[in-house]
Amino acid sequence: MVVYSSKYGATKKAAELLREQLLKDGAERVELINLKTERPQDLSGFDTVAVGSSVYIGSINKKVKRFLEENKGELLRKKLGLFLCAGAEKQEDLEKIMSDNFNLELRSAALVTGYFGHAYYVDRMGLFDKMIIKKVGNVTENRENLDQKAIEAFAMNLTK
Predict the structure, then answer these.
(1) Average pLDDT over residues 5-27
(2) Is residue 124 part of a domain?
(3) What is the DSSP string of 121-149?
(4) What is the DSSP pairing of strand 59-60 with strand 48-56?
């Protein structure tokens, strides 16, 4: 199961790419759950769960945080992977975002953690987010920078 939340679509696309890779790597089925629109009914039918989120101003999505809190006990008994879609370029910034948003117990239990790059879909953003992304990142048009190799490595390590 791949559980994620995506505000403008980058994490959704990354989750879909992860699903495709897991299926290529031999998974029998991979269910995608977008927490923005649905909630997983039962995790007991899955031995492996990947949880991902987009990052805004250093924080993961609130629905992902809630999912992790509500399902922590169950997730600790699974093969667990945690991933982010974030625009930070420095490894230490990405690691800080990971440690600030996923508690130590979950990070320690995870078989793999990963950073799948980022995308800016300016045409989908509201005015406020457009202003922020223009000021902070000088981004004025759609830009996609998802890391297929990182997704492939994550999938491989998750299914070991």
Answers:
(1) 94
(2) no
(3) -GGGS-HHHHHHHHHHH---S-EEEE-HH
(4) antiparallel
